Each structure stands twice: as structure tokens, then as C-alpha cells.
User: Fold this.
Amino acid sequence: VQLVESGGGLVQPGGSLRLSCAASGFTFSSYAIRWYRQAPGKERELFALINNAASRTHYADSVKGRFTISRDNFKNMVYLQMNRLKPEDTAFYYCHSVSGLWGRGTQVTVNA
Assistant:
């Protein structure tokens, strides 16, 4: 039973990254998935979520219009497309199932 994030890395301001979250060991399609991030010295921030059927999404104001969350229930995958990245997006990014499962996270660094 796990969630595994991938796709993080170093990108210049204005660039894009696509994060993936691979689920295994549970009935993935039954649960909403959230993306959180945590920057050094700051609290963990919930910034995107998608319901189990992929029919509803919600974004924090900090990422609205730049980030897109999606999922593929056949592949047990959740994706986070991040565009127009800013230095303040630098953080460790985690996916989370509302069943209580956390991934280990992936680092995103936005720096010229």
C-alpha cells in the first residue's frame, strides 16, 4: 500500500514540470487525492485536490490558473501539471489519499 511521487527537479522561473503520483495496494478509484507542499521553515500547504471520479478539482489561490491536477483511475495515477513556475513554488511536494496514505514526496526547486 503506497503512493510514490516522481517528476520533481530544478527548473527556471517561468518553466514547467509535471509531477506524477503512482498508487498501489488499495482501491485507488474510491478516494480523493490531494497535493500538498512544504517549503523550508513553513507549514505544509494543501494546494490541489481531485475527487475520486475526477469530476471535481479545487486549487489554492497560490496556484490557481498555473497548476492542473488530473488522474487516471485505470492506471492508478495522479498528475500535477505545473506551469509558469515561480521561486516561491520551491518546496517538497507530496500526494495524499484521503484514506490517510502519504507519499514520501519529491523536491521541486525553481531557481535561475
